[in-house]
Write a structure and sequence with these properties.
The chain is built from 1 helix and 9 strands, in the order βαββββββββ. The chain is mainly beta.
Length: 110
């Protein structure tokens, strides 16, 4: 099953190329797995399938609405991030994020 992600236009000019690549992926083949793309700015997770993010130190995950579960590689703890809260990555690792409801979040790369 493919996770549906809706991406809003970028807020900074430096994010435009990443947004364009992501937007083209969705426009041409909505049923294909997302694969590996750089997503910046606000977007929504629309279903329960987990998404893996390659985090770098200083990456901030803001939850604007909904509830997000974040689990780091080699870390069995699940972090609950609710509306108005944020998760900050302190090292380079894979993060798995998932939700049980539509959740709007924002990735802010350092």
């Amino acid at each position: 099953m493919t996770t549906a992600i809706a991406v809003d236009p970028p807020q900074r000019p430096s994010d435009i190329s990443a947004f364009s690549a992501c937007k083209n992926t969705f426009a041409h083949n909505r049923s294909a797995p997302l694969g590996s793309v750089l997503v910046a700015g606000r977007f929504s997770l629309a279903d329960r399938d987990p998404v893996t993010i390659t985090a770098v130190p200083g990456l901030v995950v803001h939850v604007h609405s909904g509830l997000l579960w974040v689990t780091g590689a080699a870390d069995n703890r699940r972090h609950r991030v609710r509306t108005g809260e944020r998760f900050i990555a302190y090292d380079e690792r894979l993060l798995t994020v998932s939700t049980r409801e539509r959740t709007e979040l924002q990735l802010v790369w350092p």
